[in-house]
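Annual report, structural modelling task.

Input specification for the iron/sulfur cluster complex:
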Amino acid sequence: MKKTLLSCKDVKQYYPVRKGVFGAKNYVKAVDGVDLEVYEGETLGIVGESGCGKSTLGKTICKLIEPTGGQIVLDGEDITSYGKKQMRQVRKKMQMVFQDPYASLNPRMSIRDIVAEPIYIQKLLKDKKEIDDYVIELLRKVGLDDYHAVRYPHEFSGGQRQRIGIARALAVKPKLVIADEPVSALDVSIQSQVLNLLKELQQEFGLTYIFIAHDLSVVEHISDRIGVMYLGNFVEVADKISLYSKPMHPYTQALLSAVPIPDPRQRKKRPVLEGNIPSALNPPSGCKFHTRCPKCMEICRQKAPQKKKISDSHYVYCHLYDENQE
Ligand code: SF4
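The model returned the following structure:
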């Protein structure tokens, strides 16, 4: 029986915007009522084009930004209305690794101080020697050397900086790590090293990951399940094998067609995605994907599709799978 570590119900992140000084208030619906379950020990990949709301969802779950609505339950604790003080305790269980290892490390702090900072904040250890030893242990775990502790961020490569960011996230022994495009800024050869490291650390520490990426080829390597997002909502959530072998949603099919396949015999004819993602300020009516969907029907313009169960581990939101369509 899988144990749910994180549960999100109808989570919303709306940003108010005004047209002109006295104009009517409108909202950018960056995350528009997301339901999500993450099971202990798994990696849930979240994929979509930039602007689909995946990073905003990650930050909202971590409560780096307050949700506009909905409910977030972590490890049986409803954290939705927690303030800063209560969230300090929760951050022991949930940490984030950011996309840009250049921007996420304070350039004036030594690596020792960067990794030790959350240990001080959480009051996990008090003795300086104990903290120093623990920092060294963490640096070794992420493949860095002891002498790196006295160095500064500018002395490291992108991949090494991401390793430092991972060591810092692991310092408080979290259960859940939300990795927001952790390898997007890295060279392809370095990407696989960091992905392998994340997998090894998951095994060793029993971590649960939410892994956010814009590329389905990146999440395939690391994920157990994958959720595909479009304009603030999931359009398909499935276990890895089902999603790659039998993608149901036209958007997932289009994203997969962009993934390079080395063997030409394995290539299938799949729709190519055209145009850009519409504005979340004024999203299309009905199915939000209808303006780009090659299979769009009349009902798609009028009515948002409901969640359809394909199997116990595969859900899709698309009118193609309405009962009267089958
Ligand atoms: Fe395309 Fe309609 Fe399905 Fe939306 S609901 S993905 S427009 S077929």
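The chain has a mean pLDDT of 91.
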